[in-house]
Amino acid sequence: MKVKVLVVLAVLAWSLFGVGVAMTMISLDEALRKPKVGTCP
Fold it and tell me: pLDDT per residue over 5-15, tens digit each?
């Protein structure tokens, strides 16, 4: 039982970490694109 709980917690932590990284990458991408959108039509 404890092993299964640890595995579930590890998977949840990893998924949350992945979501955090994805959100950070998306926000950085948008921040880098904003100036380009202002200069290019």
Answer: 999 999 999 99
